[in-house]
Specification:
With about 160 residues, this protein is an alpha+beta fold. The protein has helices at about 1-10, 15-20, 45-55, 65-75, 100-105, 110-120, 135-140, 160; strands at about 80-85, 90, 125, 145.
Length: about 160
């Protein structure tokens, strides 16, 4: 509802969030699905502030948002992709090298992602987690590959960010 209020009624994140102040105590922060200690809390207000920034930067324009494309690519069987910065930066579930039987159950191989990436004009992959696939599967298909590995579910260390 807060997002609707921001998009349609042009309210600021904090303004929309405060409308529901009596429910704040019931809203639990997001926790990364990975095992172990959670190094950050992502609250509803953080998400709304992210939406506010995306609107301000032109990364989210309601009239141009293609819900059908989003619904297609966010499904695991279609890549589990989400544009972070439209046309510039996309997040996806890391591929895992597995045999065909396991691949159908657990997602895409690196080589199957290259077909999707060619369609979406993705030219570089940056691996953030421990290697579970051969980066050559991307490079051999003309997709550049870099490693910037840090603990899953944590924030990247300064040497990666800078």
């Amino acid at each position: 509802m807060c997002a609707f209020m921001m998009i349609s009624l042009k309210m600021k994140a904090k303004q929309a969030y405060e409308v529901f102040s009596e429910y704040h105590c019931a809203l639990k922060p997001f926790r990364d699905a990975s095992k172990g200690q959670c190094f950050y809390e992502c609250t509803v207000l953080h998400c709304l502030e992210g939406l506010e920034a995306a609107i301000r930067l032109g990364w989210y324009v309601y009239e141009k948002f293609d819900a059908r494309e989003y619904d297609h690519y966010e499904k695991v069987e279609n890549g589990d992709l989400n544009w972070i910065v439209p046309g510039k930066f996309i997040a996806f579930m890391g591929p895992v090298d597995r045999d065909q039987r396991q691949q159908a159950r657990y997602g895409h191989s690196a080589s199957s992602y290259t077909k999707i990436f060619k369609h979406l004009n993705v030219s570089r992959v940056i691996r953030l987690n421990e290697p579970k696939y051969k980066k050559e599967a991307f490079e051999s298909q003309g997709v550049a590959h870099d490693d910037m590995i840090f603990v899953d579910g944590s924030t990247p260390p300064p040497e990666i960010v800078t």
